[in-house]
Amino acid sequence: MPGVALVLGAGGVVGGAWHAGLLAALAEAGWDARSADLIVGTSAGSGVGAMLRAGVSAGDLYARARGEPLSAPGARLFGDIGPVPPAPQGPTWRIPLASPPQPWHGRRCDRAATGRPL
Length: 118
What we know:
Blueprint lengths: L4 E4 L3 H17 L9 E4 L2 H11 L3 H9 L5 H7 L32 H4 L4
Parallel strand pairs: 1-2
Helix pairs in contact: 1-2, 1-3
């Protein structure tokens, strides 16, 4: 029996916002993503898929991504989660190096050069 599967990708905060906008547009066109027979996602898509299965509408996903008020059912489902935090601007972390990087001087570091696996 054929069904409808919704496959959502990754992308962090931007991916979640993109999914919210696309799903809201599909809802305006008449298709409710919550009616899909199967919803799968990776990274941001898994979070969006979980929210859809929990009953959050595409309109509420879109409103939350834009920082707008949610519907009454959406506000109940999101509860005390609060608004989406703003995305960080610029580099937010750096890995400190214990010592400065050492030059390689053209040495090869693979199995052909050492005769053993890495």
